[in-house]
């Protein structure tokens, strides 16, 4: 249903074919013949302004058909040609189609500072184990490269070391080969800002390079000039020759470097863990913003908190988590954490590398799954994000679906109506501020759901606990008595556990205790129930305790 609505909401018609019957079998190679470009030289100014006006509101990656004159004349940038493959059995209803995936690859190339001059794709029953695509397609790419002046060919899927070698041989020395994984790794290495981020990316790059060392050599040797995608040759190893023996030496060097990187990462992580533990001791609930890259997570954090986080129309604008405090209605504080965006075909090395950074997500009390609901591929992006969340083992953390950029939808009213009918879904615009009040209300409600109710008597000598209950919980009543403050409140579980010694005795419980001759100091279920803990809360408490014990055992 959502996909139908989204299709209707599309502002720009995109794809050529919806079913396999419509799909062209051998798509034409797209490119800009040099001769044509020369012929239109005089029109250049007009075409450039036309191209610019067409691009308003879109990415700077204009068309995928190579008719991007603006870019054609950009002498500064490295020109690249994109190649995709659609496997017939892979085309699912919600999945990214090959054209959409190539368009996204184009945006990644743009982010990495490359100029896209053309693209092509092929539909296959299965990939060619030697060259990934068929030999006819390789020929087509060779002539497209000659026509467009491309110096780099980027494949939309990860190529095996053997496929890279064979394709490189076929395409010749003057063409640089790259795949989606190397491109994403390159963007990450350009953008990583913190020491931890940089170390993680370097480790991921090394893992990618290790089995491809021989081809990296040829790459490095040819790359003595300057190229803008340096991903594959980034690791600082001296390459002197090409003999097998030297390869072995370098493999060993690279492995040594990887071991050092792992140690350094562990050290940085230990520091961060200490910080997190400290934060956990003053339990302010953490709300993590997760979602597809470019969904608008940083914009939302900025609008909510003036965080000043870089938000831009680029993929992977954010790599390092930023955490900001937000006050909800009633003065309760929560921490909002912005995280790295996800993408379909996310390289496994990167999921693993960023697992540590993504611990921010694992610690969260609530996830906000931010979706660019104006994007034609929103359903596929939602699926891709859910898959990564599953991989990270956080699919059980309570989640609110945040449909962002409703202002950019062709028919916002329809989207709003659908969202209103769905559970746990809020429609917002991080840009205009629409829906943010409702969002914060829902956040507050969800957090309260995940809290337990307590009834405690806090002595005046422990006034700081009263502050903490007010700050992190929702207080139903507070009475100032002779010895302290009697509070009924909903608080986070960890605080509830610390408050257990201060449980207020109800009159009935006190009587029962007197009848038994002594207060029962066993924290058994009944006495907890007397203190106002519901059976459900007790079950929750037990569950959480068991989970915490299991997690602690796992860490050891
Ligand atoms: N029209 C519209 N544009 C938005 C909205 N929210 C964000 N954007 C735009 O979308 C682009 C991406 O926004 P970011 O906030 O950088 O997205 P992100 O999810 O942080 O992206 P990554 O850090 O790359 O994962 C920017 O150009 C924003 O201006 C919105 O509500 N409406
Ligand atoms: Mg961001």
From TrEMBL:
NCBIfam families: GTP_HflX. It is found in: Cytoplasm. One of its GO terms (cellular component) is cytoplasm. One of its GO terms (molecular function) is GTP binding. PANTHER family: GTP-BINDING PROTEIN 6-RELATED, GTP-BINDING PROTEIN HFLX. This is GTP-binding hflX isoform B. The lineage of its organism: Eukaryota, Viridiplantae, Chlorophyta, core chlorophytes, Trebouxiophyceae. It comes from Chlorella sorokiniana (Freshwater green alga). The keyword Electron transport does not apply. The keyword GTP-binding applies. InterPro entries: G_HFLX_dom, GTP-bd, GTP-bd_M, GTPase_HflX, GTPase_HflX_N, GTPase_HflX_N_sf, HflX_C, P-loop_NTPase.
